[in-house]
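New to this. Explain the following:
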Amino acid sequence: MEGIKQELPLITDADEINSSSSSFLAQKRRQYYLRPMKLFIMSSMSAEFMFLLIGIFYFSGSKDLFYKIVWTLFFCGIGMGSTMGTLINMFITDRYFNTKAILGTIILGCIVFGSCNILCFRLDHHMDYWGAITNPIFFLSKGFLVAIAGSAVNGYLLFNPNGQKLLIKMGL
C-alpha cells in the first residue's frame, strides 16, 4: 500500500494549477471517484423503478402513487445509490482491484441494500404498498437477490478492466 502511494501536488501551488497536465489529472481523478456514485445511483433507481412497477401492478394499484414514487425513486433510489457510491470510494477504491474489489462490493451491497430491504419491509407493514404483508418471502428474497446481483455487476463494471472499458463506452 505504501509503495502505491503517490505524491499529489498541492492545490495552492500556482504552477501546478495553471499546468494543463495537472488539470487533466484532476479531471481524471474526479471522474474516477464520481463513477461509483453515478453508477450506483442509476442502478438503484432502476431497481427501485422495477420494484415500483411490481408494487403497482401486483399489490396495491395506483393508490397514493405520488408517495410511492417519492419513496422508491427519490428516498430509496438516490439514498441507497449515494450511500453505496460513498462507501465504495471510502473502503474499496484505490485499495482493492478485480476479484477482491468485486467481493467487497457484494459485501457492502448486501449490508446497505439488505438493511434498506428490511427497513422497507417493516415500513410496508404500516402502508401495505409493496406486498410485504401478503408475500413476505417474495418481498425479502427479491430485495436480497437484486442486491447481490446488482452489486456483483456494478463491482465488475467498476473494478475489472473490461468493465471499465464498457463504462467508458457508455459515457460514465
